[in-house]
Structures are given as structure tokens and as C-alpha cells.
Specification:
With 630 residues, the chain is of the alpha+beta class. Helix content is 32%, strand content 20%. It has 17 helices and 25 strands. The strands form six sheets. The chain has a seven-stranded antiparallel beta sheet with strand order 2-7-8-9-14-11-12. Strands 15, 16, 17, 20, 21, 22 and 25 form a seven-stranded antiparallel beta sheet that branches. Strands 1-5-6-10-13 form a five-stranded mixed beta sheet. The protein starts with 17 loop residues before the first strand and ends in a 16-residue tail after the last strand.
């Protein structure tokens, strides 16, 4: 196991990879632009006008909101600020950090003792603040953090029996364990693992939940923690977290069972599962909450580190490049609470949600409920910071791809910088350039996606070799300054059938959706952080004409350079031309695209040329289509 970074100490199980400290990976190209857009949008300014994050916040000593929203916000603000080296954002974050550290209670408690209308000493919001502090420490080395976290762990040691985890805390206890493991790997004090084990015994049993899965259909009414979409998105990593402590193979296997069962009964083509607010089945007109999107990403980032399965990287990219940008406006001044895979009307109306409100799919500041307003900020920054990880042999692993630069220690304590140049996911060529002070031997692990059949690799002036899809490919050699590695992932068009024998079009990690004309109507708020309804100005109810034997012959691909805002209908870097006919019987039902007719379907409507763009570049869309019988 690597000694260059804080890898798992015994008796914790060894991890496949180790997360690099915040700041080791820097975004470049379109990814840097995406983070800059976020900084210039809600994330960089929301504390200036949203009361829950204003100066009256309980996490700043005020008498306002004092539960999860301050920590949620910081969980995205801190990595964004340090990835961009943005002094203004760093200053915004610092005042929250300083208040939390300076005002730690004598008994070790962190943060407000009692949020308004909440249980006193509720550990859940403190769990989020601990994640914030770990990232802040990695970026700054502030020595106050480790001592403050040890005092809080001692509080848990002394008080967990009389004040056990309840409600949200019990269902999200694995996030607390992550921070305790982080602390143990640095402090090496065995009592911290005793505390983590007590947390595990008070936690909800996610391994059993996913292995003996009972929720096979849409939840029609009521609230129950085990069916809550965000709890499950966070709980996906729980078996992997507890595996580090238990070494129990059943925990390890439960992770795969979690993904399988959620996909089978509630999965969508963009990698997330439905939940509006609770499990909602596989109909592409059901919704998925934004909090679940970013928490699912965080779960996968950690599972990649723990278990090293390349499939987690495939899933992470599918969510990051499709579901995440699709639920935000291109300028990131507004977001949805629920996104729909087939989303043809965003209005304040009743829909077939399990129990969400009528404003859930409009774009705005605080549609339906404010948790996503506070929590959405972590998605892009954490994705950017975990593109690269350290490997046990003192090497580096590219676990997901986007333009970036990583600087890290490798074998022998040598510092290496790798620059990754690419327009991925819009194009399949990825070039890595090595910067080293002296030749150094270490392994480079490259994730080859399962969809990338025919992928090839070339190392500097060596011959091109084929690499196997669905696994990590390792190159170990004496690397020299200026060495280059070129990875080519073929972006072949693929047709999948996610629901009712319908069709979805994929290319690489991207899902494609019908480009629909849009009319935006402001329905509340104040620009730029206003609330918007979105109406279609072009038809949407098309079936596609697909060549069954050779589906790629049914699609024409055109590409152009990815600009600064690729996730926008007006500047999508890839377009697909397909043919289809309208399906008149497929219309609106309860203000959403109605149930998909079972394919194949017949239509005598005029044949039309249709344009599909990346799902993440859409605001209105159809991504799952009936297939025409012709």
C-alpha cells in the first residue's frame, strides 16, 4: 500500500486507490469553464440574497437556519474555491470555517447545538461539516481541523449511547464513518475505529436493504426513509464504507446488488434512478431529485477509491455528463428539484410525482424545497477533484476523463505533473503529457470504459496497441519528461432499450435527446436568480426509424469544437441526425409526456428529419422514444 498519501491504515481494509488531496487535480478546458460558470452563478453569489445562507445563518452565529444548509453549501463551495484558486470564494468559505472551529463547544460538539424546530445535538448536519473540514484541511493544512475533529469524535465516544443517531443521521451514518476513517488514517489512534464501529451499529442496514430488496414498483404515497431517493443515493456507498471496517465480503457484494436492483426497478438511461421524492419506477416521465444526482456521484467517487471497479467510473461519467448538467440552466443561475428523462413541459402543475409539489420541475432558486439549492454545489467540483487517484504501487490512476492537470507524488517521492488534453466526452481522443524532473518508473492505470470496444493506446513512439474494454489498463515504465500517451476511445453510436422496448441513442458516455424549441416565462423571483417555466415551441412526440441490424446507419453524426458552454442547446458540440414520425396517440398526461406506447408503433405521419443533442445540453427533451414499426 502506498505510503505517499494517507491510504488505509490497518486494520482497515486496503483500498484499490487513494483519493488525492484537494488541489492535486486542476480542471482545464471546458471543465474549467464549467466551474467558472458555477462560480459566476448561484454558487458564487447565493449567500448574498438567499436568507438560509445569509449572515443570520446559525452556522455563522445567527438565529436563522442552523441545520444542514450551511454545511451543504460549503461542501461544494470549498472545493470550487480551491480548484479555481478564487480568492473571493475562498474568503466566503473561510468565515464559515472559522466560525465553526472557533465556536466548538467545550464538550467537542461542532456547530449549532439545536437548529430551529430540530432535535438538539442532531449529528446529521455535523456529518456534512466534517466532510467540509476534511477538504479544507487538504487544501490548506490548517492544523486546527484535525484537533477539532478529534474532539468531536470524543464527543461521539462519550455521548452516542445517550444521544444515538436518529432519523437522517441513522440513514446517512456512512458519511460520518468516512470522516472518522479520514481522521484515523492521519492520527492513527485506535479508539477512532471503536467510535466508527459504534456508529455502524446504530446505522441503517443498507447492505441488507440492497441485498434483500423489496421495493419493486413506484411508491404511491407516504414518507419512509428506506425509499427516499437521496438516502438511497448516499446509501449506495454504505456497504463499501462498512467493508473497510468489517472485511465482510457480503458488504462488498452488496454494492453491486445495490446498483443492479435500483437499475432493474427504478433505473433510467442516464444512470440515475427515479425518486420524486421516493422510488418512482422506470417510466422516463418520473423525476429524479438533484440532491440524489450529486450524492450518487459522491458515492461512486468513493466506491472507485475503495473497490476500484471500472464500472463505477463508467456510471460516474454517465451521471456527470448527462443528469448533472441537464438539471441546471446553462448559466447555473437556476436548477430543478426534479428532472425527467422525457421532459417536455416545465410548469407549476400537478404531475405524477410520488409526493413532490407542483413546482418540482421548473428552473429556479428554490423549487419545491431548498435542500437542493444548498446541496447542488458539490457535483462539478468533486467530480473534477477525483478524476485522478493514487494507486497502491505509488502510481496514478485516471478513473474518469475530462481536461485536467494532476500534480502528485509517485514512486520514490518524485513529483510528476500529467496534463490531460481532450474534448471528452464529446470526442474520444485523450492525450496525456508527462512533466518530470528526472526519469521515474511508476504505473499509470487508465480506465477503459465498457462501451469502448476497439480502444487503442500509444505510448510516445511505441506502436499502437489494443486495450480491453471494461477494465483498467496498466502501463508501467520509466517515464521521462515530455513522454506522451494517447488513448483513443471509439465513439460508436449505440441503441439501448430502456423501457417498453423503446429506444435511446447513446454515443460514448453521452445519451442523446430530441432538441426541442423553448419558450421561457419568468414566474417569480428576481433576475438573474429568477424562477422559470419552460414551454415547448416544436413538436416532441416522435417515434424513431431505426435500422435493427445496423442502428449506426440510422444516425448521422456531426461534431464541432467544445466551447466554453457545451451544456447548452445552442452550443452542443455533437449533433445526431435521425428520422422519425410523430406518434399522435402519445401526448401529455398530467402535464408530462404520457406513458410510452409499447414499441414497435405504427404511424402514417410525414417522415421528419430530427436533431438530437447531448442530454446534458437540453432543458426540454425526449431521450426515450417509441420505435417505429417500419
Amino acid at each position: 500500500m502506498s505510503t505517499l498519501y494517507h491510504s488505509s491504515r490497518l486494520p482497515l481494509a486496503s483500498t484499490a486507490f487513494t483519493l488525492l488531496p484537494l488541489g492535486s487535480v486542476r480542471p482545464l478546458g471546458w471543465l474549467h469553464s464549467q466551474l467558472r460558470i458555477q462560480a459566476d452563478g448561484l454558487t458564487g453569489h447565493i449567500d448574498e440574497f438567499w436568507p438560509d445562507l445569509g449572515p443570520d445563518s446559525g452556522w455563522l452565529g445567527g438565529d436563522g437556519e442552523a441545520w444542514e444548509r450551511g454545511p451543504y453549501y460549503l461542501d461544494g463551495l470549498v472545493p470550487l474555491a480551491y480548484l479555481l484558486d478564487d480568492e473571493a470564494l475562498i474568503a466566503k468559505a473561510q468565515k464559515w470555517i472559522d466560525w465553526t472551529l472557533v465556536h466548538q463547544s467545550a464538550n467537542g460538539w461542532l456547530g449549532p447545538v439545536q437548529a430551529p424546530r430540530r432535535t438538539a445535538y442532531d449529528v446529521w448536519p455535523a456529518m456534512v461539516m466534517l466532510k467540509v473540514l476534511t477538504q479544507y484541511h487538504e487544501a490548506t493544512g490548517d492544523a486546527r481541523v484535525v484537533e477539532a475533529m478529534k474532539r468531536f469524535a470524543a464527543y461521539l465516544r462519550d455521548h452516542l449511547d445517550e444521544r444515538p443517531l436518529v432519523s437522517w443521521g441513522a440513514y446517512r451514518a456512512q458519511d460520518l464513518a468516512l470522516s472518522l476513517f479520514w481522521l484515523y488514517n492521519r492520527a492513527g489512534e485506535a479508539w477512532l475505529l471503536d467510535v466508527a464501529d459504534r456508529v455502524r451499529r446504530q446505522a441503517f442496514g443498507w447492505s441488507d436493504h440492497f441485498s434483500d430488496y423489496h421495493y419493486l414498483v413506484k411508491i404511491e404515497e407516504g414518507f419512509d426513509h428506506p425509499t427516499h431517493v437521496v438516502n438511497n443515493a448516499m446509501g449506495i456507498k454504505a456497504p463499501g464504507v462498512w467493508y473497510l471496517l468489517s472485511h465482510d465480503e457480503r458488504d462488498r457484494l452488496a454494492v453491486c446488488e445495490a446498483l443492479h436492483n435500483l437499475d432493474r426497478y427504478h433505473g433510467t438511461v442516464v444512470g440515475v434512478f427515479t425518486g420524486d421524492e421516493h422510488f418512482a419506477g422506470r417510466d422516463p416521465s418520473q423525476g429524479t431529485e438533484l440532491c440524489a444526482v450529486v450524492e450518487y456521484m459522491f458515492s461512486l467517487e468513493n466506491l472507485l477509491s475503495f473497490l476500484g471497479d471500472a464500472a463505477f467510473g463508467d456510471r460516474l461519467e454517465r451521471i456527470a455528463f448527462n443528469a448533472l448538467p441537464a438539471t441546471l440552466t446553462p448559466d447555473m443561475w437556476a436548477h430543478q428539484y426534479d428532472q425527467q428523462v422525457n421532459q417536455v413541459l416545465c410548469t407549476i402543475d400537478e404531475r405524477n410525482w410520488t409526493n413532490n409539489g407542483p413546482s418540482s420541475n421548473i428552473f429556479g432558486l428554490e423549487p419545491n424545497y431548498g435542500c437542493c439549492t444548498a446541496n447542488m454545489h458539490q457535483g462539478w467540483p468533486k467530480f473534477a477533484s477525483t478524476l485522478w487517484m493514487a494507486s497502491p504501487e505509488d502510481g496514478l490512476a485516471a478513473v474518469a476523463y475530462a481536461p485536467s492537470r494532476v500534480t502528485a507524488l509517485v514512486r520514490g517521492g518524485v513529483t510528476v505533473t500529467l496534463v490531460e488534453e481532450t474534448e471528452y466526452p464529446f470526442a474520444g481522443t485523450i492525450r496525456f503529457t508527462f512533466c518530470l524532473a528526472k526519469p521515474t518508473t511508476f504505473p499509470l492505470h487508465l480506465r477503459i470504459p465498457a462501451w469502448a470496444s476497439g480502444a487503442t493506446l500509444r505510448v510516445t513512439d511505441k506502436e499502437v496497441i489494443d486495450v480491453a474494454a471494461g477494465a483498467f489498463h496498466t502501463v508501467e515504465r520509466a517515464w521521462q519528461d515530455g513522454d506522451r500517451v494517447t488513448l483513443v476511445l471509439p465513439m460508436n453510436v449505440k441503441v439501448s432499450r430502456p423501457y417498453h422496448n423503446s429506444v435511446a441513442i447513446e454515443r460514448g458516455p453521452l445519451v442523446f435527446a430530441l432538441k426541442i424549441g423553448e419558450q421561457w416565462r419568468q414566474v417569480g423571483g428576481k433576475r438573474p436568480h429568477a424562477d422559470w417555466e419552460v414551454y415547448p415551441t416544436t413538436p416532441w412526440n416522435y417515434g424513431l426509424l431505426i435500422d435493427q441490424e445496423h442502428p449506426e446507419r440510422s444516425v448521422q453524426v456531426s461534431t464541432h469544437a467544445a466551447g466554453d458552454r457545451p451544456f447548452s442547446p445552442d452550443s452542443a458540440p455533437v449533433e445526431l441526425a435521425v428520422r422519425g414520425r410523430r406518434v399522435p396517440e402519445w401526448g401529455l398526461v398530467k402535464n408530462s409526456a404520457g406513458p410510452l406506447p409499447q414499441s414497435p408503433v405504427r404511424s402514417t405521419e410525414e417522415l421528419a428529419e430530427l436533431t438530437l443533442i447531448p442530454y446534458g445540453s437540453t432543458n426540454l427533451r425526449v431521450a426515450v422514444f417509441p420505435e417505429l414499426a417500419e
